[in-house]
Write a structure and sequence with these properties.
heterotetramer, A: alpha+beta, 5-stranded antiparallel beta sheet, elongated, B: 80 residues, 2 helices, 5 strands
């Protein structure tokens, strides 16, 4: 298990390699990416701001809870901070498991928990030059 | 005691600073710290019952606060 | 949308890049990998055999059905044939979508459909030198 | 008519070949092709009602078969 708040692009292939192990039969990766439109407004980039030590503690706790609940320790979670361009990953969750259903259930549970518990905020920068702290999206 | 309270995102913008110093009684609880922050200039623009973290964990309003605690007001999170 | 039966290692980072687009907010990747143990027997590698033209047709149909059902055309499915070593990917499904729930629902639906519809078989090669065509695993 | 029927995986191993030629009536249906394959040497080791594909699509037992069709017996699939 590893969780991190990072200020550089997330290396998806490295995350996949990190959770790969010969006793696993399934790997589920979820990536949240920056969309070009939110609530009908044209977005240029999103700036993520974290309360880093608490965010890392909370992400670690989510990973530990997922490990206990779904039965795997092959879990890596990374969340970006700073400016993230359109199409780039803001968060990535990789879970490997012996079987596919718990691998997929775990990655879903983790992103849902992350979105309600981890102290990270985003400010959308719009094409029209304005910017705004925005709430959670689905 | 004096406490530095961390602010983030929209709360930091509302107050105009990433942290504020407040003075609270020595037996203060989380709710008292919130009251003290909201009594500051522009503090009333914050919600009445924001989420609060003490030492990187979410804390209930009745939790006692020590001078060495790291206290932060947590706006609605939006990660992911 | 793209689906393929391939006889070389699956490039996960390329699949992720292929479905990435600025109008998406979520990307779900599922990877099936070769396990070192099945039914208590030590596995050395799995040999995948496909009825390739039908497998590609069926995978294409699954992708089209998923596109209609979940509302995205950012779908790529690749399945390996030949010998696949322990820990390596036998199948990868990448789905990107504006929102996370349908991205995850779609990749799950696709792997479940693939496992019951696509004419691909596997022969497990065991550490003890024996080998056997085996049925579907979870 | 004569038809070449494709075999895969455990079915190919059971028959000892990746394809077999069978002779069936001109108005044969999928079920007749299966009967003809099962009448071959070692054919009875195949299931009585295997899945059959005609031109890369799963076919029902009563589907008519033409000489130009690509017919295949499909063992229980195990991809993923």
């Amino acid at each position: 298990m590893r969780t991190a708040v990072v200020d550089r692009p997330i290396d998806v292939a490295a995350l996949v390699a990190e959770v790969t192990a010969a006793h696993n039969g399934a790997l589920s990766l979820f990536i949240g990416t920056v969309r070009d439109v939110n609530d009908g407004r044209a977005v240029e980039a999103i700036e993520y701001n974290a309360y880093a030590p608490m965010a890392e503690r909370e992400m670690g706790e989510i990973a530990s809870e997922a490990a206990a609940q779904f039965g795997t320790t092959q879990i890596v979670i990374e969340h970006r901070t700073g400016y993230v361009a359109l199409g780039q990953a803001s968060v990535a969750i990789a879970v490997a498991h012996a079987r596919r259903a718990p691998a997929m259930d775990a990655s879903r549970w983790i992103i849902e928990q992350l979105k309600v518990r981890v102290p990270i905020w985003k400010r959308e920068h719009y094409v029209d030059g304005t910017r705004e702290w925005t709430g959670q999206t689905s | 005691m004096n406490l530095d309270v961390l602010l983030f995102a929209s709360y930091a913008d509302a107050i105009g600073a990433p942290a504020v110093r407040v003075s609270v009684p020595d037996d203060a609880r989380v709710a008292d710290v919130v009251l003290a922050v909201r009594a500051l200039s522009a503090g009333a623009t914050l919600p009445e019952r924001p989420l609060v973290a003490v030492n990187h964990r979410y804390a209930k309003p009745d939790q006692l606060v020590k001078p060495t605690d790291e206290v932060a007001l947590i706006p609605p999170v939006a990660g992911g």
